Amino acid sequence: MALKKVLFLLFISTLVQHTIAQTSPNSNDFWRNVRFGGGLGFGLSNGGFNASVSPSAIYQFNEQFAAGTSFTFNYAKFDNDKRLAYGASALALYNPVPFLQISAEYEQLRVNLSQQVGATTFEDNYWSPALFFGLGYTNRNVTIGLRYDVLYDENRSIYLDAWMPFVRVFF
Q1: What is the mean pLDDT of residues 44-58?
Q2: Nearest partner of 84 among 40, 124, 37, judged by Cα
Q3: Topology of 2-170 in CATH?
Q4: Quick check: 18 and 31 in contact, CB under 8 A?
Q5: Sign of the C-alpha dihedral, residues 133, 159, 14, 57?
Q6: Structure letter (DSSP) for residue 32
């Protein structure tokens, strides 16, 4: 629970920084440090398929640390059900050395589930949280890595597994 509060405070501090930058005489300095891009996720297993697209914006505080927000659109098809999800996340990126990126991301998705059981179709809509910790290799503006969802629930998550490869690009 404490980690959720830290990530929430990080998100709020980024928004406050943005607001202050908009009203200061040097507001262009803020936009020089904003980077746009996003990530792609993909999962494949014997029983299903999962893909996600996450357009993002981050504020580059310095050479090592960046934080921002992301919107996520996700589709999953398991054996007998389909899940479509959308939501937002707050993310923090840390590069202890230029080629290595450590990431933390709290994501909240609205999942629309359609499950076929025999001739009957069941539908459910619910919120699904995810807290990812990741590690990736960075080369210029592209990061390729692997992340792990510590809140993973195989019955409620849209993801096939707690482990998920990713590709992240920022310009």
Answers
A1: 87
A2: 124
A3: Porin (2.40.160)
A4: no
A5: positive
A6: H
Q: Are 82 and 114 contacting, i.e. CB atoms less than 8 angstroms apart? A: yes
- The three-point CA angle 152-36-139 to 5° equals 80
Spans of all domains in the chain: 2-170
Name 139's Cβ contacts closer than 8 Å, sequence gap at least 6. 99
Residue type at 14 in one-letter notation: T
Confidence (pTM): 0.78
Distance CA 104, CA 63 (A): 17
Q: In the structure, what pLDDT confidence band is assigned to residue 2 with cuts at 50, 70 and 90?
A: low
Burial classification of residue 47, based on how many CB atoms lie within 10 Å of its CB (0-12 exposed, 13-18 middle, 19 or more buried):
exposed
| Amino acid 115: pLDDT | 87
What's the rounded Cα separation, in Å, for the pair 98 and 96? 7
- 43, 87, 95, 125, 129 from 134: Cα distances, Å: 15, 19, 12, 28, 16
Determine the Cα–Cα distance for residues 3 and 11; give it in Å rounded to an integer. 12
Three-state secondary-structure class, residue 158 = coil
Backbone angles phi, psi at 42, to 5 degrees: -150, 135
Instruction: State the Cα–Cα distance between residues 63 and 61, nearest whole angstrom.
Output: 7
